[in-house]
Amino acid sequence: MKKIKLALGCGWRNYGKKWTHIDLGDYDHLDYKQDIKDLSNFKNDTVETIYASHVFEYFDRYEAEDFLDECYRVLKKGGKLYLSVPNFEAIAYLYVQKKIPLFKFLGPLYGHMDMDCKEIQHSTCYDFASLGQLLQRADFKRIETYGTEDLIGDVDDHSKAEIDGEYISLNVVCEK
Predict the structure, then answer these.
(1) Residue 174 pairs with which residues in a beta bridge?
(2) pLDDT, tens digit, for every residue of 17-37?
(3) Do 52 and 44 contact (CB within 8 A), yes or no?
(4) C-alpha dist (Å) from residue 17 to 14, 34, 71, 117, 150
(5) Which of 128, 153, 167, 171 has the largest count of CB atoms under 10 Å?
(6) DSSP one-letter string for 5-68
(7) Is pLDDT at 158 greater than 70 in this prediction?
(8) 120, burial (CB in 10 Å: exposed 0-12, middle 13-18, buried 19+)
(9) pLDDT class for 98, splitting at 50, 70, 90?
(10) DSSP code at position 144
(11) pTM score
């Protein structure tokens, strides 16, 4: 049986044939052009892995809870959810220490992109504690940080984001 691995909000990034690519954009490699909050085309307990890199922060906290519920629904027991978001703690530290000026953080903090004929922007930010609490409330277990190399190889996405050599992505994995 084929293991289902979802790349949600992948945009132009193609993670390879082992992944099912879902995004609202218009890209040739997409398997589904749809809102990533709607996984109704997947049955309960059928997905092995979900990867969402730097899209979760576009949801407000209520949408985030709904999204996590939907991910939990489709994941198999023991299935893993990988989330990457801008790391507010790292950004704040680098700013306060005057290592990096504010203007370099505007994209990671506020982000914006044109999507489906409208502009969207980041709705919230996270540190490990706040993201962990949200994941716990959604019944996820074994919440910890991870490195992306084993998951996506050398694909260049924001999970590896850095500014002036300082990493600014919070990469968290959890399990159903």
Answers:
(1) 81
(2) 999 999 988 899 999 999 999
(3) no
(4) 8, 19, 21, 28, 16
(5) 171
(6) EEEET-TT----TTSEEEESS--TT-SEES-TT--TTS-TT-EEEEEEES-GGGS-HHHHHHHH
(7) yes
(8) middle
(9) confident
(10) E
(11) 0.89
